[in-house]
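Bug: token stream looks shifted between consecutive jobs. Job 1:
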Amino acid sequence: MTGLLLLTGGILVIAVFALVYRILSLVNIAKGNQGKRVGTSNAVNSFLFILFFFVGFGLIFWYSGKASENFLPEAASEHGKLTDKLFWITTAITFVVFFLTHIVLFFSPYFFRYRESRTAYWWPDNTKLEVAWTVVPAIVLTVLVLTGWWAWRDITAPAPDDSLQVEIVGKQFNWMTRYGGKDGKIGKYDYRKIDATNQLGMDFAADKSNFDDFTPREIHLPKGKSVLLKIRARDVLHSVFMPHFRVKMDAVPGMPTNFWFTPTKTTEEMRKELNDPNFNYELACTEICGQGHFAMRMVIVVSEPEEFEKWYASQEPWAKQNADYIASLNLENSKELASLFNQK
């Protein structure tokens, strides 16, 4: 409703100025001034530039204040704080430049409007000015690019050896996730092994590490421990997006990608911070991957290390849940399977 009122008010203001302009034109005609090279409209138009400047930036500041209510809270990961800092520095610099250049843009038509008593000054070039507006932006942009590159280099550096490995696989239209089980190692996969049951294509013949892997319906992460996301896609391009952790990495078919980070706030801590008992971290897809794109969401639970270890130990291996499927593979290591499933 407020937006509609503002739009209506804006239209009415424009209509009023149009009528004022028309009246001034008629007054000039009545006075016989329509033959002059410069009429009242020249001053009116140049003044409207200044008015538009204040109205436009007034709306920008007003909308920025309203939009800030929906900004993401402080990053819940170590690298996220640096990412946010660089973002706001870049935003501040670009806005200051934007503001200053628009002062020149909108005030110049008024201060340098044509007057019959004034002759324009011919200024063909100014070497110092041209060097300044070339060198200064180049230096500022170079500093911004380098600081961004240094941050990205640290983010994409090899993950610590003791990182928790979590595989995330995107397909139309849901996410699947896999953990390494007791050995902490995620087994190898082969796309040719994908079928209706083994949707991740786990290759049990090639890698025994697959036998203790488990595939929960939610992503669970420990606070304060580095997490290595091993990302891939099964069909089309998807994009792993965890906004509160400032994590974003494409899931590309045939080209696995990685992203590692360290969570710093549990789900419960974030709920208290936001005063929202229903808050949940979320994995979303930011690549429009088809008609069911909206459904690609998965809950992320961050807990204290002790609580996470308890949850991790309680998970049942996928192979044990699908014992009949494993038996149908006719694998040679039947003794290992019998021990795994507590069979005699």
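Job 2, same session, no restart:
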Amino acid sequence: MDFDTDSLNKMAEEISGFTDDLSEAIAVDSCVRKRYKHVLICGMGASAIGGAIFADSMYYSSKVSVDIAKTMSLPEWVDKDTLFVACSYSGETYETIFMYKLALDAGLDVVAVTHGGTLKELSEQNGNPMILIEGRSMQPRSAIGWFIGILGAIIEDAGGPGIRHQLRMMLPRLRGYQKEIESEDGIAWRIAKDLEGHVPVVYGAPDMEAIAVRMKNQLNENSKIIAFSGVVPEFNHNEVVGWYDDPYRTKFMPVVICDDR
């Protein structure tokens, strides 16, 4: 039986381009020219995951609060010290465009991050700063390198820590990890083989919760399988009982993402 592998090959190419995309994104002009107390990032799916990663990892280290908006209304705390960032790779995400309009109506400073579409057109019409994701067209979930780099630059210039330098320092290690991940006997292949026949449940430490969500989403979208995510130590107070006592637990496979602390 012949299989059409074009989409698989395209996804593999896009994933392999993550580090190059990140390297380019770090160098963009953030369009931010003042400091803020809050950065509110609006997006859905992969367009918001870069912001969620910073919201988790910078919780203790940033003087600027970073929050993610996935609702259809602005929180009451937004004010003139809030920078609103609208993220949509396609530029057509309904929820993001709706929130973008609300932010403008509320008089907030707005920056758009997109590859084109309606969000690009509205930004040009309204004259708000906009950062275009350059390069080849890709599936939105593959643009995470761009979103991490661009949002890192925006947060830094809005008053956050020196994210650009930290990301640049990571690039050599990321290129090394890429070779390991793409190897047919590498850790990614071993994890995939272990997960075969199970429902993955991905857990992350509090500052890596978004990473767990990202892995869950990738399994959903790329592998076309059911997967779930959660966070520790909250896991210790409820779900751990199910892992011990539920007779169906053998159908699930836990994956824990943590650092070396």
